[in-house]
Amino acid sequence: MKWALVAFAIGLALRIALAGGDLRRDELRILRAAENRTATAQVMPLWPMTLAVGGRATAIVFSSLTIVLAWLLVRRLADERTAAVVAFALAIDLDLAVLGGSVLSEPLYGFLLVAFALAWVRERTVLAAALCGLAALTRPEAVLIPIAFAAWNREWRRPALLAAGVAIALAPWAARNAHVFDAFIPLTTNGGVTLWAGHNPADADAPFRKRGQGRGVVFDEIGTETRRDRAYRARAIDYATAYPGETAVTTLAKTAITFTPLQRKGRSWLWATMTLAFGWALVRRPRLRTPLLGPLLCVMALICVVFLAIPRYRAPYHPFFYAFAAAGLLHRPDPEKKNPDSLSRSRAESV
Q1: Contact at 8 Å (CB) between 265 and 311?
Q2: pLDDT tens track for 43-77
């Protein structure tokens, strides 16, 4: 436990040191939502409500506590040595540290994601379902988690409980939106805008490693939030249909940016390094005790490849990526090739 506490202290200090700076468009939008108590359809409600109570310090606390939760999770999946490597990696990860000092939703979402994973491997399914629901109230992609677990493990009973937890958590939010905006909005009206940011004509002239980053996009005001999001979603689909070659190149670029050392920002050096270890782990197929990492990393890959391949979008999944990469470096491969979480599609074995 001492190594987890040391990593926590380092991570906390780094997040405090990097907190602040000029606010970006997304951050200003979240701050407005916090001031108005979620009076917008573009931001899921849990983070603005939490931010309204604790301010920027809330992000620092959640981001730092995630280091300790990740240590507990990886210790259960592998051993204390692997857990220590992951904890220190999370502590010095500059992508996470910068986000941990911001007002964006990733610190809370990442915390809930690791808490969910810990409850899941301990077979506390009801708690895992509740945490998955809270995660969906923080970032909409969490609705994919029950689907990913059902498809990966070819088992439906426990993922169905996760889906029920998500549905129960989102029901009041959808009812509120139906009343305020006169439209059924179970998630946000930001998906079409984000899809357009990842697939638009500006990428045709962008260098390979800068594609799918929202480069050169200026968003117009097109009526209400709901109408604007639908309009941008239609634009993105029309562009992808009209220019399949450019869309394929952009998708390839986003995949390369996400899973190779070809990173867009210099502060992503740790992620770039760990992608090499991750590739080695795919070859070695290390022993892990619970089928968990595969479905979560599939969700991360889908979000980065379909929408935007930027550090912010993948940041909450760093603990799981680092866990598999560290296990590949520190553990001998499974000689029987039956590891349930070796990122193969073998059926999950019971814990």
Answers
A1: yes
A2: 888 999 898 888 889 999 999 999 999 999 999 99
